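U., I forgot to send this yesterday:
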Amino acid sequence: MIRDVRARVATDEERDRLWPKFVAFYPGYDFFFQRNAKGRKIPIVILDPR
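Result:
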């Protein structure tokens, strides 16, 4: 299935809500990626339907 979407970076509020779900699904997001980012926030990209 192909869908037309628009990509955007999650707001801080969306990211704060979604990040724990990402880590629950794959703990490596927090362990490998976030810790290696040295204080930078890993962005979450939201795909909104057009």
